[in-house]
Amino acid sequence: MNTNTIRIQSKRLMRLPFAPAADEDKAGLLQEYGRVFRDHCRSDAHVEFVVDHLMSTSQRCPAPAEIVQAAGFVQDRAAGDGLPAACDVCSKEGGYWVSCEERIDGRSGAYWVARRCTCARGRALAEADRRAEMDRRRERY
Ligand SMILES: [Zn+2]
């Protein structure tokens, strides 16, 4: 696997919210990213597609465990992402999230929130979110 690919794709993940600063052991996290890419991705293209997926779905700089998990279900670009195809509803919004209008009790007005779709693809993504959240909790405690 190309060292340059790992460096470039790891740097992309550092653009997500809550990425560590240089004095917060950013170098250490980049090193862990390199390790999980080498251990869990099959090719440079696979690394790139895993990061594309994380850039589209992660709301913060991912833990190495989230990369491992994404590498498990995100396939090489040529093979698609390994999930069921997007339905008519979620394909219009890129196949990962759908925007929903939601009212929050006790507040006036409605808010637009991103949700997983109700189709087979959306349910597979929601299940992946649930597993990633469980991994995050395990890391925290
Ligand atoms: Zn859908």
Task: Give your account of this protein's structure.
- By secondary structure, the protein is mainly α.
- The chain has two domains: 1-82; 83-141, no CATH class.
- The protein is built from six helices and two strands.
- It has helices at 3-13, 26-40, 44-57, 64-73, 88-91, 120-140, and strands spanning 98-103, 110-115.
- It binds zinc ion.
- Zinc ion (ZN) is lined by residues 86-87, 89-90, 117, 119, 121-122.
Features:
mainly alpha; 9% strand; 141 residues; globular; 2 domains
What's the helix-strand series?
A: HHHHHEEH
Q: How big is the Rg?
A: 16 Å
Strand adjacency order, main sheet: 1-2
Instruction: Catalogue the unreliable spans.
Output: none
Taken together, the total number of domains comes to 2
Distance between the termini: 33 Å
- Structural class label: mainly alpha
Task: List strands and helices in order, with pairings.
Layout: H1 3-13, H2 26-40, H3 44-57, H4 64-73, H5 88-91, E1 98-103, E2 110-115, H6 120-140
Antiparallel strand pairs: 1-2
Helix pairs in contact: 1-2, 1-3, 2-4, 3-4, 4-6
Zinc ion (ZN) binds next to helix 5 and helix 6.
Task: Compose a concise summary of this entry.
With 141 residues, the protein is mainly alpha-helical. It has 2 domains: 1-82; 83-141, no CATH class.
